[in-house]
Design brief:
Helix 1 packs antiparallel against helix 6 and helix 3 (72-81) crosses helix 6. The protein is mostly helical. The longest helix is centred in the C-terminal third of the chain and has 20 residues, at 107-126. It has one domain. Strands 1-2 form a two-stranded antiparallel ribbon. The relative contact order is 0.18. It is 40% helix and 2% strand. The chain is globular. It is built from six helices and two strands. This is Lipoprotein.
C-alpha cells in the first residue's frame, strides 16, 4: 500500500507541474529538425532557450515551513546538461503520458519540462534534501545490489543506488 501511495504522490506532483511547464495548454508550433544530426554532448544554449521553472508544490511547502528546498540554480544545471536526444520530438511517444504536447514545445519549453520533472522527482524521492541517504527495510525494496551483493542504499536528490 505504501508503494501505491508513493507512486500516486509522484504522479500527482508531476501532473500538477505539467501545465506549469507548458504541456497543458496552447503552445507555439515549431518546425521539426529531424533531418539534422543529433548532438550527444551538452552544450551552452542561448538565454532564450533556457526558461524559468516554477517551484513544485513540495518546494513551495518546504519554503513555507522555512526548510531547505530546491535551489533554482539546479534548474539551470539540468537545462544546460540535457542531452539533445531528450529534447528531440522523437521522444514524444515516451513522454506523451506526462506531456501530451511535448512535440509542439519549443526547445526552451522542453528544457523547462525536464527541469520541472527532475525537481518533482527529487521532491518525491528525497524531499528536496540533497544529502538524503536511505536504507529501506521493507522486503519489496530491501534488495541486494547485483554487483556488490550488499544491501542497497539510496542517496541524493534522485535516490540513486
Amino acid at each position: 500500500m505504501q508503494t501505491f501511495a508513493r507512486t500516486s504522490t509522484i504522479a500527482w506532483i508531476i501532473a500538477c507541474g505539467i501545465g506549469l511547464a507548458g504541456c497543458g495548454g496552447f503552445v507555439e508550433m515549431v518546425s521539426d529538425n529531424s533531418g539534422q544530426a543529433v548532438q550527444q554532448q551538452p552544450a551552452s544554449y542561448p538565454p532564450e532557450e533556457l526558461k524559468p521553472v516554477p517551484p513544485t508544490p513540495i518546494a513551495i511547502q518546504k519554503a513555507e515551513l522555512d526548510e531547505p528546498t530546491w535551489d533554482p540554480a539546479w534548474n539551470m544545471l539540468i537545462e544546460q546538461a540535457l542531452p539533445a536526444n531528450l529534447l528531440s520530438s522523437r521522444r514524444e511517444k515516451e513522454v506523451k503520458p506526462l506531456c501530451p504536447q511535448f512535440r509542439h514545445l519549443s526547445k526552451g519549453q522542453r528544457r523547462a519540462f525536464w527541469a520541472y520533472f527532475f525537481q518533482a522527482l527529487a521532491g518525491a524521492e528525497a524531499g528536496l534534501k540533497p544529502t538524503s541517504d536511505v536504507h529501506h527495510t521493507q522486503p519489496e525494496v530491501d534488495v541486494p545490489d547485483l554487483v556488490t551483493h550488499l544491501p542497497v542504499h539510496q542517496q541524493g536528490l534522485l535516490q540513486l543506488t
